[in-house]
Amino acid sequence: MSLSVAGIEVDPAIIxxxxxxxxxxxxxxxxxxxxxSAVGSVPLRLALEGSDGxxxxxxxxxxxxxxGHLQATLLLIERTxxxxxxxxxxxKLYVGGxxxxxxxxxxxxxxxxxxxxxxxxxxxVYEHPxxxxxxxxxxxxxxxxxxxxxGRHLDGCRVGFDLGASDRKASAVINGEAxxxxxxxxxxxxxxxxxxxxQGVMDSIRRAAAHLPRLDAVGGSAAGVYINNRARVASxxxxxxxxxxxxxxxxxxxxxxxxxxxxxxxxxxGEVTALAGSMSLGGNPVLGLxxxxxxxxxxxxxxxxITGWLNELAxxxxxxxxxxxLDEWSGDCCGSQFFSQQAVNxxxxxxxxxxPEKLGLPERLVLIxxxxxxxxxxxxxxxxxxxxxxxxGVAYYADFYDLKHVLILGRVTTGPGGxxxxxxxxxxxxxxxxxxxxxxxxxxxxxxxxxxxxSIAAASLPAIKEIPR
Length: 469
What we know:
The chain has 469 residues and is α/β, with parallel strands linked by helices. The protein has helices at 25-39, 70-88, 99-108, 116-125, 194-209, 242-249, 252-260, 269-281, 341-350, 361-373, 377-397, 416-432, 434-437, 447-459; strands at 3-5, 8-10, 42-49, 55-62, 92-96, 131-135, 147-148, 157-163, 167-174, 177-185, 217-222, 225-227, 230-233, 264-268, 286-291, 295-300, 306-307, 405-409, 441-443. It has three domains: 40-144, no CATH class; 148-271, Nucleotidyltransferase, domain 5 (2-Layer Sandwich), CATH 3.30.420.40; 281-454, Nucleotidyltransferase, domain 5.
């Protein structure tokens, strides 16, 4: 089955059984670069600058505009910029190459352009209006990356928590061994009262701490961007008015730390996903993908450190079709619609599965998982569809990450459906990208770690200066 966009035709070897129009970004990029080899090329360099002065550079080649295929070139670079923004982050983008490409990106990523959400988000995170500088390839600055170690402290009596959009998880950990773990359903995205968030987090910490002889430290992971334990931007708090966000949510975890009187660290859930993967696998580099209410992702490099990157792949593209499913927050076709409970529900509904109208996504997923355990053939195809997304998605991620281990976890991978997702993703790589399949492994953690492993890894975040005796 051939699919076409911007004059580029792709012919996937494996079609998602319940979403045949899916047009993998990885295949588009491969076909475009075949065109570059056949027609000729000019260099194009992109670089993102962070608030700490770090520079993250990306190099590629494009067809010269005079040689035609400009629509395909503009699509490729716009989607590449989109990926880099959410992978690496930054407040200034350098576009070095053909002026036609640079000016297009500058118009798209502007306060009134098609990617005004991305413009506003990056401006908020980095507390500086987002800028696009159109220049020559030679004038783009080289990479200057910053990395740092993360967590792995297993001493003492700790609580780790993980805040998602549909549930919050917490674990009590003694010298690296979990003695208690639980999940509690909540609905933070619709809670406008900051006290709802405060009470929910404190409840989970206290319930877990009740299973410890004492509390030495607390570590947490949560969807969104957190800098020095302060919330910057996060979908969990989208219902909180801006004034209350600044007054109550931004310093929320500093308040909790002071009230508990113990060391506490809170970071983006994607970073803890990668940390959990690294600790589970005992090897690096690791890309962690948590398929939960949305997609949480993180990356640990070959040295076992995290970068200063955002790694918010929920907002990064994987599908280039023109009429793809749109994320409700960003208004774009991106990872949240392919690797999450949202994706499961979207595919299920499009396949004709029916649910009570008021039933939430977590409860719908539970029903789907039950049907999978009963051997429902249509549900099996749903998981094959998600697995196909993962396989082509990992191939696309390989264009931007140094990959060796990819760990997939989260509520969507619970039960036998998780094995179907894993096996299908491996099949895609072996058939379409054997060079990647030979060097990159995709794995699932054990069943318990899939559901609560992230909160256990979170517990290892803070260092304890002195352990009580």
